Amino acid sequence: MRRGSVVAPLLLILIGVLFLVNNLRPNLSLLELVGRYWPFLLVGWGALRLLEILILSAKSRPLPTSGISGGEWALVVVIALVGSSLLVVGRINERLTGVSSAIRGLEVFGENYDYPVSVEQKVGSTPRVIVENLRGNARIVGVDTDEVRVTGRKTIRAMQQERADRANEQSPVEINVNGDQVVIRTNQERVLGQERISADIDITVPRGASVEARGRYGDFDISDLSGSVDVVSDSAGVRLENIGGNVRIDLRRSDIIRATNLRGNLDLKGNGKDVELENIAGLVTVSGGYSGEFQVRTLAQPLRYESNSTELRVTRIPGELRMALGHLSAERVVGPMKLTSNRSKDIEISDFSDALEIVLDRGDIQLSPGKGPLGKVDVRTRSGNIDLALLPDSRFTLTASTNRGSVQNEYGEPIQEDIRGQGGVLSGKSGAGPEMRLATERGTIRVRKAGIGRPAMEDKAFTPNPPRPPVPIRPQTVVQ
Amino acid sequence: MNANRAALLQAIRGPIMLMMLGLLLAADHFGSYSFSRTWPALIIVFGILKLLERLALRPQEHGGGM
User: Would the ipTM clear 0.85, i.e. be above it?
Assistant: First the structure.
Protein backbone atom coordinates (compact mmCIF):
# COMPACT_ATOMS: atom_id res chain seq x y z
CA MET A 1 0.00 0.00 0.00
CA ARG A 2 1.33 3.37 -0.98
CA ARG A 3 1.72 5.68 1.97
CA GLY A 4 0.51 9.21 1.25
CA SER A 5 2.67 12.20 1.86
CA VAL A 6 2.93 13.73 5.31
CA VAL A 7 2.32 17.17 3.79
CA ALA A 8 -1.46 17.01 3.38
CA PRO A 9 -2.20 16.29 7.05
CA LEU A 10 0.32 18.91 8.12
CA LEU A 11 -1.35 21.45 5.86
CA LEU A 12 -4.73 20.64 7.41
CA ILE A 13 -3.30 21.03 10.91
CA LEU A 14 -1.75 24.36 9.96
CA ILE A 15 -5.02 25.69 8.53
CA GLY A 16 -6.89 24.54 11.62
CA VAL A 17 -4.38 26.18 13.96
CA LEU A 18 -4.54 29.43 11.98
CA PHE A 19 -8.32 29.61 12.19
CA LEU A 20 -8.31 28.65 15.86
CA VAL A 21 -5.77 31.32 16.76
CA ASN A 22 -7.71 33.82 14.67
CA ASN A 23 -10.86 33.00 16.63
CA LEU A 24 -9.26 33.00 20.05
CA ARG A 25 -7.00 36.02 19.62
CA PRO A 26 -8.69 38.18 17.01
CA ASN A 27 -6.35 41.11 17.61
CA LEU A 28 -3.33 39.19 16.26
CA SER A 29 -4.21 40.09 12.65
CA LEU A 30 -3.23 36.67 11.40
CA LEU A 31 -4.64 37.18 7.97
CA GLU A 32 -2.11 39.86 7.37
CA LEU A 33 0.70 37.56 8.44
CA VAL A 34 -0.60 34.85 6.14
CA GLY A 35 -0.95 37.36 3.34
CA ARG A 36 2.69 38.30 3.81
CA TYR A 37 4.40 35.00 4.41
CA TRP A 38 2.40 32.45 2.43
CA PRO A 39 5.11 31.90 -0.23
CA PHE A 40 7.19 30.21 2.48
CA LEU A 41 4.35 27.74 2.84
CA LEU A 42 5.16 26.57 -0.68
CA VAL A 43 8.88 26.47 0.11
CA GLY A 44 8.24 24.46 3.27
CA TRP A 45 5.92 22.11 1.46
CA GLY A 46 8.50 21.50 -1.27
CA ALA A 47 11.26 21.00 1.29
CA LEU A 48 9.21 18.47 3.27
CA ARG A 49 8.34 16.51 0.13
CA LEU A 50 11.97 16.59 -0.97
CA LEU A 51 13.05 15.30 2.42
CA GLU A 52 10.49 12.50 2.23
CA ILE A 53 11.72 11.43 -1.17
CA LEU A 54 15.36 11.53 -0.12
CA ILE A 55 14.54 9.36 2.90
CA LEU A 56 12.63 6.90 0.72
CA SER A 57 15.54 6.82 -1.69
CA ALA A 58 18.08 6.28 1.12
CA LYS A 59 16.02 3.34 2.37
CA SER A 60 15.85 2.18 -1.27
CA ARG A 61 12.08 2.03 -1.16
CA PRO A 62 10.10 2.52 -4.42
CA LEU A 63 9.87 6.19 -5.31
CA PRO A 64 6.69 7.91 -6.53
CA THR A 65 6.84 8.81 -10.23
CA SER A 66 6.14 12.44 -9.50
CA GLY A 67 6.98 14.25 -6.31
CA ILE A 68 3.98 16.57 -6.52
CA SER A 69 0.84 15.16 -8.11
CA GLY A 70 -1.46 17.03 -10.47
CA GLY A 71 -4.00 17.58 -7.72
CA GLU A 72 -1.37 19.05 -5.48
CA TRP A 73 -0.26 21.46 -8.21
CA ALA A 74 -3.87 22.58 -8.47
CA LEU A 75 -3.85 23.26 -4.74
CA VAL A 76 -0.63 25.24 -5.17
CA VAL A 77 -2.33 27.40 -7.76
CA VAL A 78 -5.27 28.00 -5.42
CA ILE A 79 -2.96 28.93 -2.54
CA ALA A 80 -1.02 31.28 -4.78
CA LEU A 81 -4.19 32.98 -6.02
CA VAL A 82 -5.71 33.39 -2.57
CA GLY A 83 -2.41 34.43 -1.02
CA SER A 84 -1.59 37.03 -3.61
CA SER A 85 -5.12 38.39 -3.60
CA LEU A 86 -4.75 39.14 0.11
CA LEU A 87 -2.12 41.77 -0.51
CA VAL A 88 -2.20 42.46 -4.22
CA VAL A 89 -5.85 43.53 -4.18
CA GLY A 90 -4.88 46.16 -1.65
CA ARG A 91 -2.16 47.49 -3.97
CA ILE A 92 -4.39 47.47 -7.05
CA ASN A 93 -7.02 49.16 -4.99
CA GLU A 94 -4.70 52.00 -4.12
CA ARG A 95 -3.84 52.48 -7.75
CA LEU A 96 -7.32 52.22 -9.21
CA THR A 97 -9.40 53.96 -6.62
CA GLY A 98 -12.29 54.26 -9.03
CA VAL A 99 -12.98 50.56 -8.95
CA SER A 100 -12.46 50.21 -5.25
CA SER A 101 -16.11 49.54 -4.66
CA ALA A 102 -15.95 46.60 -7.04
CA ILE A 103 -13.44 44.84 -4.80
CA ARG A 104 -15.28 45.61 -1.61
CA GLY A 105 -15.32 41.89 -0.85
CA LEU A 106 -12.03 42.41 0.92
CA GLU A 107 -13.88 44.16 3.73
CA VAL A 108 -14.47 40.87 5.46
CA PHE A 109 -10.77 40.76 6.24
CA GLY A 110 -8.97 43.06 8.57
CA GLU A 111 -9.57 44.39 12.03
CA ASN A 112 -11.85 46.98 13.56
CA TYR A 113 -10.29 50.13 14.93
CA ASP A 114 -12.39 52.55 16.97
CA TYR A 115 -11.96 56.31 17.17
CA PRO A 116 -13.94 58.66 19.39
CA VAL A 117 -15.96 61.44 17.81
CA SER A 118 -16.73 64.69 19.58
CA VAL A 119 -17.45 68.04 17.94
CA GLU A 120 -19.75 70.90 18.78
CA GLN A 121 -20.79 74.22 17.34
CA LYS A 122 -22.98 77.11 18.37
CA VAL A 123 -26.05 77.62 16.20
CA GLY A 124 -29.38 79.46 16.35
CA SER A 125 -32.47 78.15 18.04
CA THR A 126 -34.25 76.94 14.89
CA PRO A 127 -31.52 75.69 12.57
CA ARG A 128 -31.95 73.45 9.57
CA VAL A 129 -29.67 70.52 10.37
CA ILE A 130 -28.46 68.28 7.56
CA VAL A 131 -26.86 65.02 8.65
CA GLU A 132 -24.84 63.03 6.17
CA ASN A 133 -23.68 59.73 7.56
CA LEU A 134 -23.18 57.13 4.87
CA ARG A 135 -22.68 54.20 7.15
CA GLY A 136 -23.59 53.89 10.76
CA ASN A 137 -26.37 54.71 13.12
CA ALA A 138 -27.32 58.24 14.08
CA ARG A 139 -29.39 59.31 17.03
CA ILE A 140 -30.69 62.85 16.85
CA VAL A 141 -32.32 64.39 19.88
CA GLY A 142 -33.69 67.87 20.40
CA VAL A 143 -32.81 69.47 23.72
CA ASP A 144 -32.95 72.97 25.19
CA THR A 145 -29.68 74.27 23.87
CA ASP A 146 -28.33 76.58 21.23
CA GLU A 147 -25.55 74.35 20.01
CA VAL A 148 -25.18 71.25 17.92
CA ARG A 149 -23.09 68.58 19.53
CA VAL A 150 -21.93 65.34 17.93
CA THR A 151 -20.46 62.56 20.02
CA GLY A 152 -19.94 58.90 19.34
CA ARG A 153 -17.60 56.45 17.84
CA LYS A 154 -16.15 55.84 14.43
CA THR A 155 -15.27 52.28 13.52
CA ILE A 156 -12.77 51.66 10.76
CA ARG A 157 -12.17 48.22 9.39
CA ALA A 158 -8.72 47.99 7.92
CA MET A 159 -5.87 45.58 7.41
CA GLN A 160 -3.36 47.67 9.34
CA GLN A 161 -3.44 50.25 12.09
CA GLU A 162 -1.68 52.88 9.96
CA ARG A 163 -4.28 52.51 7.24
CA ALA A 164 -7.02 52.92 9.79
CA ASP A 165 -5.31 55.98 11.23
CA ARG A 166 -5.00 57.50 7.79
CA ALA A 167 -8.63 56.76 6.99
CA ASN A 168 -9.58 58.37 10.28
CA GLU A 169 -7.69 61.53 9.38
CA GLN A 170 -9.29 61.58 5.94
CA SER A 171 -12.78 61.40 7.37
CA PRO A 172 -13.16 64.02 10.06
CA VAL A 173 -16.62 64.58 11.45
CA GLU A 174 -17.42 68.19 10.68
CA ILE A 175 -20.12 70.70 11.56
CA ASN A 176 -20.40 73.48 8.99
CA VAL A 177 -22.65 76.42 9.80
CA ASN A 178 -23.88 78.57 6.98
CA GLY A 179 -26.49 81.01 8.23
CA ASP A 180 -29.45 78.94 9.36
CA GLN A 181 -28.14 75.80 7.77
CA VAL A 182 -25.98 73.39 9.72
CA VAL A 183 -24.35 70.51 7.89
CA ILE A 184 -22.97 67.58 9.85
CA ARG A 185 -20.76 65.41 7.69
CA THR A 186 -18.89 62.24 8.51
CA ASN A 187 -16.95 62.53 5.23
CA GLN A 188 -16.71 58.80 4.76
CA GLU A 189 -16.74 59.16 0.99
CA ARG A 190 -13.37 60.90 1.14
CA VAL A 191 -11.64 57.65 2.05
CA LEU A 192 -10.80 55.99 -1.21
CA GLY A 193 -9.02 52.89 0.04
CA GLN A 194 -10.66 49.65 0.92
CA GLU A 195 -11.14 50.56 4.57
CA ARG A 196 -14.73 50.48 5.65
CA ILE A 197 -15.89 53.22 7.95
CA SER A 198 -19.02 53.50 9.92
CA ALA A 199 -19.90 56.10 12.49
CA ASP A 200 -22.34 55.60 15.31
CA ILE A 201 -23.12 59.10 16.44
CA ASP A 202 -25.32 60.87 18.96
CA ILE A 203 -26.35 64.33 17.88
CA THR A 204 -28.06 66.83 20.12
CA VAL A 205 -29.64 69.80 18.39
CA PRO A 206 -31.81 72.70 19.55
CA ARG A 207 -35.39 71.61 20.04
CA GLY A 208 -36.62 73.96 17.31
CA ALA A 209 -34.42 72.39 14.66
CA SER A 210 -35.61 70.67 11.54
CA VAL A 211 -33.53 67.73 10.40
CA GLU A 212 -32.60 66.28 7.05
CA ALA A 213 -30.81 62.95 7.42
CA ARG A 214 -29.11 61.09 4.59
CA GLY A 215 -27.36 57.78 4.70
CA ARG A 216 -26.67 54.62 2.87
CA TYR A 217 -26.65 52.04 5.58
CA GLY A 218 -27.56 52.55 9.20
CA ASP A 219 -30.41 53.42 11.48
CA PHE A 220 -31.84 56.81 12.33
CA ASP A 221 -33.40 57.50 15.68
CA ILE A 222 -34.85 61.00 15.87
CA SER A 223 -36.83 62.48 18.71
CA ASP A 224 -38.10 65.61 20.45
CA LEU A 225 -37.97 68.13 17.62
CA SER A 226 -40.48 70.80 16.75
CA GLY A 227 -39.29 71.19 13.17
CA SER A 228 -39.71 68.89 10.21
CA VAL A 229 -37.79 65.70 9.56
CA ASP A 230 -36.65 64.29 6.27
CA VAL A 231 -34.89 60.92 6.08
CA VAL A 232 -33.43 59.46 2.90
CA SER A 233 -31.44 56.25 2.94
CA ASP A 234 -30.68 53.14 0.96
CA SER A 235 -31.12 50.90 3.92
CA ALA A 236 -32.16 52.02 7.34
CA GLY A 237 -34.35 51.44 10.30
CA VAL A 238 -36.07 54.65 11.34
CA ARG A 239 -37.53 55.52 14.70
CA LEU A 240 -39.23 58.85 15.25
CA GLU A 241 -40.78 60.18 18.38
CA ASN A 242 -42.32 63.53 19.32
CA ILE A 243 -41.83 65.41 16.08
CA GLY A 244 -43.64 68.72 15.60
CA GLY A 245 -43.26 69.28 11.88
CA ASN A 246 -43.97 67.27 8.78
CA VAL A 247 -42.06 64.05 8.28
CA ARG A 248 -40.89 62.58 5.03
CA ILE A 249 -39.18 59.19 4.92
CA ASP A 250 -37.78 57.74 1.72
CA LEU A 251 -36.00 54.41 2.04
CA ARG A 252 -35.03 51.85 -0.52
CA ARG A 253 -34.95 49.20 2.15
CA SER A 254 -35.70 49.04 5.84
CA ASP A 255 -36.40 46.53 8.50
CA ILE A 256 -38.54 48.75 10.65
CA ILE A 257 -40.09 52.18 10.54
CA ARG A 258 -41.64 53.34 13.76
CA ALA A 259 -43.19 56.74 14.30
CA THR A 260 -44.98 57.88 17.43
CA ASN A 261 -46.47 61.21 18.41
CA LEU A 262 -46.16 63.24 15.24
CA ARG A 263 -47.99 66.52 15.06
CA GLY A 264 -47.53 67.01 11.33
CA ASN A 265 -48.04 64.96 8.19
CA LEU A 266 -46.16 61.76 7.50
CA ASP A 267 -45.09 60.78 4.04
CA LEU A 268 -43.58 57.34 3.74
CA LYS A 269 -42.02 56.04 0.54
CA GLY A 270 -40.00 53.05 -0.49
CA ASN A 271 -39.66 49.46 0.49
CA GLY A 272 -39.27 47.73 3.78
CA LYS A 273 -40.62 45.27 6.23
CA ASP A 274 -42.43 46.42 9.34
CA VAL A 275 -44.13 49.76 9.81
CA GLU A 276 -45.58 50.97 13.09
CA LEU A 277 -47.31 54.33 13.29
CA GLU A 278 -48.99 55.64 16.38
CA ASN A 279 -50.67 58.84 17.38
CA ILE A 280 -50.21 60.95 14.29
CA ALA A 281 -52.08 64.20 13.99
CA GLY A 282 -51.51 64.89 10.31
CA LEU A 283 -52.15 63.13 7.03
CA VAL A 284 -50.42 59.80 6.57
CA THR A 285 -49.39 58.83 3.07
CA VAL A 286 -47.67 55.52 2.48
CA SER A 287 -46.52 54.30 -0.88
CA GLY A 288 -44.25 51.42 -1.66
CA GLY A 289 -43.91 47.82 -0.66
CA TYR A 290 -43.78 46.64 2.91
CA SER A 291 -43.40 42.93 3.30
CA GLY A 292 -43.80 42.74 7.06
CA GLU A 293 -46.54 44.00 9.25
CA PHE A 294 -48.09 47.42 8.76
CA GLN A 295 -49.59 48.66 11.98
CA VAL A 296 -51.24 51.99 12.69
CA ARG A 297 -52.92 53.25 15.81
CA THR A 298 -54.69 56.51 16.56
CA LEU A 299 -54.59 58.52 13.37
CA ALA A 300 -56.47 61.79 13.53
CA GLN A 301 -56.49 62.42 9.79
CA PRO A 302 -56.80 60.34 6.63
CA LEU A 303 -54.48 57.47 5.84
CA ARG A 304 -53.60 56.71 2.26
CA TYR A 305 -51.75 53.52 1.55
CA GLU A 306 -50.67 52.42 -1.88
CA SER A 307 -48.62 49.42 -2.89
CA ASN A 308 -48.64 47.67 -6.21
CA SER A 309 -51.22 45.20 -4.96
CA THR A 310 -53.25 47.11 -2.41
CA GLU A 311 -54.85 50.49 -2.10
CA LEU A 312 -56.31 51.62 1.17
CA ARG A 313 -57.93 54.84 2.28
CA VAL A 314 -59.29 55.45 5.73
CA THR A 315 -60.60 58.75 6.99
CA ARG A 316 -59.73 58.33 10.62
CA ILE A 317 -58.44 55.53 12.83
CA PRO A 318 -59.26 56.14 16.49
CA GLY A 319 -58.56 52.45 17.07
CA GLU A 320 -56.05 50.40 15.13
CA LEU A 321 -55.42 48.81 11.80
CA ARG A 322 -53.01 46.00 11.07
CA MET A 323 -52.11 44.68 7.70
CA ALA A 324 -49.81 41.87 6.72
CA LEU A 325 -49.31 40.04 3.47
CA GLY A 326 -52.54 38.04 3.49
CA HIS A 327 -54.50 39.78 6.16
CA LEU A 328 -56.02 43.05 7.19
CA SER A 329 -57.74 43.69 10.48
CA ALA A 330 -59.13 46.95 11.73
CA GLU A 331 -60.92 47.96 14.85
CA ARG A 332 -62.62 51.27 15.53
CA VAL A 333 -62.12 52.97 12.20
CA VAL A 334 -64.07 55.82 10.70
CA GLY A 335 -64.92 55.88 7.01
CA PRO A 336 -65.33 56.56 4.30
CA MET A 337 -62.94 53.65 3.99
CA LYS A 338 -61.91 52.08 0.72
CA LEU A 339 -59.83 48.98 0.18
CA THR A 340 -58.84 47.46 -3.13
CA SER A 341 -56.49 44.54 -3.41
CA ASN A 342 -55.62 42.19 -6.21
CA ARG A 343 -53.89 39.79 -3.86
CA SER A 344 -55.44 37.28 -1.58
CA LYS A 345 -56.36 38.97 1.68
CA ASP A 346 -58.58 38.04 4.58
CA ILE A 347 -60.33 41.08 5.98
CA GLU A 348 -61.68 41.60 9.43
CA ILE A 349 -63.18 44.98 10.23
CA SER A 350 -65.01 45.63 13.44
CA ASP A 351 -66.59 48.69 14.95
CA PHE A 352 -66.49 50.79 11.82
CA SER A 353 -68.69 53.71 10.96
CA ASP A 354 -69.55 55.70 7.85
CA ALA A 355 -69.07 54.33 4.34
CA LEU A 356 -67.05 51.25 3.45
CA GLU A 357 -66.01 49.94 0.09
CA ILE A 358 -64.02 46.75 -0.38
CA VAL A 359 -63.07 45.23 -3.71
CA LEU A 360 -61.13 42.04 -3.31
CA ASP A 361 -59.91 39.40 -5.68
CA ARG A 362 -59.78 36.63 -3.16
CA GLY A 363 -60.22 36.37 0.56
CA ASP A 364 -62.74 36.06 3.35
CA ILE A 365 -64.38 39.15 4.73
CA GLN A 366 -65.75 39.58 8.19
CA LEU A 367 -67.55 42.79 9.08
CA SER A 368 -69.15 44.08 12.22
CA PRO A 369 -70.29 47.69 12.07
CA GLY A 370 -70.19 49.71 15.26
CA LYS A 371 -72.80 51.90 16.91
CA GLY A 372 -71.82 54.96 14.93
CA PRO A 373 -73.80 56.08 11.86
CA LEU A 374 -73.19 53.84 8.88
CA GLY A 375 -72.71 55.03 5.34
CA LYS A 376 -73.03 53.08 2.16
CA VAL A 377 -71.40 49.67 2.41
CA ASP A 378 -70.27 48.03 -0.79
CA VAL A 379 -68.24 44.83 -0.48
CA ARG A 380 -67.23 42.59 -3.35
CA THR A 381 -64.93 39.60 -3.55
CA ARG A 382 -64.42 37.20 -6.38
CA SER A 383 -63.77 34.24 -4.15
CA GLY A 384 -64.30 34.09 -0.40
CA ASN A 385 -66.86 34.00 2.36
CA ILE A 386 -68.56 37.09 3.73
CA ASP A 387 -69.69 37.30 7.31
CA LEU A 388 -71.69 40.30 8.49
CA ALA A 389 -72.57 40.80 12.14
CA LEU A 390 -75.21 43.50 12.60
CA LEU A 391 -76.21 45.07 15.88
CA PRO A 392 -79.72 43.98 16.92
CA ASP A 393 -81.47 47.30 16.31
CA SER A 394 -79.52 48.55 13.30
CA ARG A 395 -81.11 50.14 10.27
CA PHE A 396 -80.11 48.98 6.85
CA THR A 397 -81.14 48.10 3.36
CA LEU A 398 -79.29 44.88 2.68
CA THR A 399 -78.60 42.93 -0.48
CA ALA A 400 -76.10 40.10 -0.05
CA SER A 401 -75.55 37.67 -2.88
CA THR A 402 -73.40 34.74 -3.86
CA ASN A 403 -73.30 33.17 -7.30
CA ARG A 404 -72.06 29.87 -6.05
CA GLY A 405 -72.36 29.02 -2.38
CA SER A 406 -74.83 28.99 0.42
CA VAL A 407 -76.55 31.88 2.17
CA GLN A 408 -77.22 31.77 5.88
CA ASN A 409 -79.61 34.09 7.60
CA GLU A 410 -78.98 33.98 11.31
CA TYR A 411 -80.29 37.49 11.85
CA GLY A 412 -83.88 36.58 11.24
CA GLU A 413 -86.51 39.21 10.43
CA PRO A 414 -86.58 41.29 8.31
CA ILE A 415 -83.97 39.52 6.21
CA GLN A 416 -85.25 37.04 3.63
CA GLU A 417 -83.38 34.14 2.16
CA ASP A 418 -83.72 33.38 -1.53
CA ILE A 419 -81.90 30.42 -3.10
CA ARG A 420 -81.13 30.92 -6.78
CA GLY A 421 -79.45 28.13 -8.68
CA GLN A 422 -76.15 27.33 -7.05
CA GLY A 423 -76.11 30.59 -5.13
CA GLY A 424 -78.53 32.77 -3.26
CA VAL A 425 -79.47 36.22 -2.06
CA LEU A 426 -80.17 37.64 1.38
CA SER A 427 -82.15 40.83 1.35
CA GLY A 428 -84.02 42.92 3.82
CA LYS A 429 -84.79 46.44 4.93
CA SER A 430 -84.92 47.78 8.42
CA GLY A 431 -85.95 51.40 8.78
CA ALA A 432 -84.41 54.08 6.61
CA GLY A 433 -80.91 52.70 6.86
CA PRO A 434 -78.02 53.05 4.45
CA GLU A 435 -77.60 50.68 1.57
CA MET A 436 -75.44 47.62 2.17
CA ARG A 437 -74.39 45.48 -0.76
CA LEU A 438 -72.32 42.37 -0.23
CA ALA A 439 -71.37 40.16 -3.15
CA THR A 440 -69.16 37.15 -3.67
CA GLU A 441 -68.92 35.09 -6.81
CA ARG A 442 -67.99 31.98 -4.94
CA GLY A 443 -68.39 31.53 -1.20
CA THR A 444 -70.77 31.50 1.71
CA ILE A 445 -72.64 34.57 2.87
CA ARG A 446 -73.79 34.77 6.43
CA VAL A 447 -75.59 37.57 8.23
CA ARG A 448 -75.96 37.33 11.99
CA LYS A 449 -76.58 39.39 15.07
CA ALA A 450 -73.46 40.82 16.63
CA GLY A 451 -72.31 38.95 19.67
CA ILE A 452 -74.23 35.78 18.72
CA GLY A 453 -72.63 32.89 16.94
CA ARG A 454 -69.04 32.23 16.26
CA PRO A 455 -67.52 34.29 13.53
CA ALA A 456 -66.92 32.11 10.54
CA MET A 457 -63.23 32.84 10.43
CA GLU A 458 -62.32 32.94 14.06
CA ASP A 459 -59.91 30.09 13.72
CA LYS A 460 -58.13 32.06 11.03
CA ALA A 461 -57.72 35.00 13.37
CA PHE A 462 -54.58 36.94 12.80
CA THR A 463 -51.56 36.07 14.81
CA PRO A 464 -48.40 38.07 14.36
CA ASN A 465 -45.44 36.30 12.82
CA PRO A 466 -42.97 34.89 15.32
CA PRO A 467 -39.79 36.93 15.52
CA ARG A 468 -37.30 35.86 12.92
CA PRO A 469 -33.68 35.16 13.78
CA PRO A 470 -31.47 38.13 13.04
CA VAL A 471 -30.21 38.20 9.50
CA PRO A 472 -26.46 38.67 9.17
CA ILE A 473 -25.57 41.96 7.59
CA ARG A 474 -25.06 41.44 3.92
CA PRO A 475 -22.92 43.63 1.74
CA GLN A 476 -24.93 46.25 -0.04
CA THR A 477 -26.92 44.92 -2.92
CA VAL A 478 -28.73 47.11 -5.32
CA VAL A 479 -32.44 46.86 -4.85
CA GLN A 480 -34.40 46.89 -8.09
CA MET B 1 21.74 2.25 -9.99
CA ASN B 2 21.43 4.77 -12.79
CA ALA B 3 17.75 3.96 -13.23
CA ASN B 4 17.34 4.58 -9.53
CA ARG B 5 19.04 7.90 -9.81
CA ALA B 6 16.79 8.84 -12.72
CA ALA B 7 13.71 7.88 -10.72
CA LEU B 8 14.96 9.97 -7.81
CA LEU B 9 15.58 12.95 -10.03
CA GLN B 10 12.12 12.57 -11.48
CA ALA B 11 10.56 12.35 -8.02
CA ILE B 12 12.31 15.40 -6.63
CA ARG B 13 11.46 17.52 -9.65
CA GLY B 14 8.06 18.45 -8.26
CA PRO B 15 9.23 19.47 -4.79
CA ILE B 16 12.15 21.45 -6.17
CA MET B 17 9.91 23.29 -8.61
CA LEU B 18 7.52 24.02 -5.77
CA MET B 19 10.27 25.41 -3.56
CA MET B 20 11.56 27.46 -6.43
CA LEU B 21 8.10 28.87 -7.06
CA GLY B 22 7.74 29.66 -3.36
CA LEU B 23 11.09 31.46 -3.29
CA LEU B 24 10.29 33.51 -6.38
CA LEU B 25 6.92 34.51 -4.93
CA ALA B 26 8.57 35.41 -1.63
CA ALA B 27 11.11 37.54 -3.49
CA ASP B 28 8.17 39.16 -5.27
CA HIS B 29 6.39 39.90 -2.00
CA PHE B 30 9.37 41.40 -0.30
CA GLY B 31 9.90 43.65 -3.22
CA SER B 32 13.38 42.71 -4.44
CA TYR B 33 12.41 41.10 -7.77
CA SER B 34 8.92 40.95 -9.15
CA PHE B 35 7.62 37.57 -10.23
CA SER B 36 6.75 38.93 -13.64
CA ARG B 37 10.51 39.31 -14.23
CA THR B 38 11.85 36.20 -12.52
CA TRP B 39 9.49 33.50 -13.83
CA PRO B 40 11.85 32.25 -16.61
CA ALA B 41 14.04 30.87 -13.81
CA LEU B 42 11.34 28.21 -13.32
CA ILE B 43 11.75 27.05 -16.91
CA ILE B 44 15.52 26.98 -16.57
CA VAL B 45 15.38 24.90 -13.40
CA PHE B 46 12.85 22.56 -14.98
CA GLY B 47 15.08 22.16 -18.02
CA ILE B 48 18.16 21.45 -15.87
CA LEU B 49 16.30 18.79 -13.91
CA LYS B 50 15.03 17.17 -17.13
CA LEU B 51 18.57 17.20 -18.55
CA LEU B 52 20.05 15.61 -15.42
CA GLU B 53 17.39 12.90 -15.63
CA ARG B 54 18.33 12.16 -19.22
CA LEU B 55 22.04 12.11 -18.41
CA ALA B 56 21.33 9.68 -15.58
CA LEU B 57 19.37 7.39 -17.90
CA ARG B 58 21.63 7.39 -20.95
CA PRO B 59 24.69 5.49 -19.67
CA GLN B 60 22.37 2.79 -18.38
CA GLU B 61 20.70 2.47 -21.80
CA HIS B 62 24.12 2.21 -23.40
CA GLY B 63 25.15 -0.27 -20.79
CA GLY B 64 22.05 -2.34 -21.53
CA GLY B 65 22.91 -2.27 -25.22
CA MET B 66 26.43 -3.50 -24.76
Answer: no
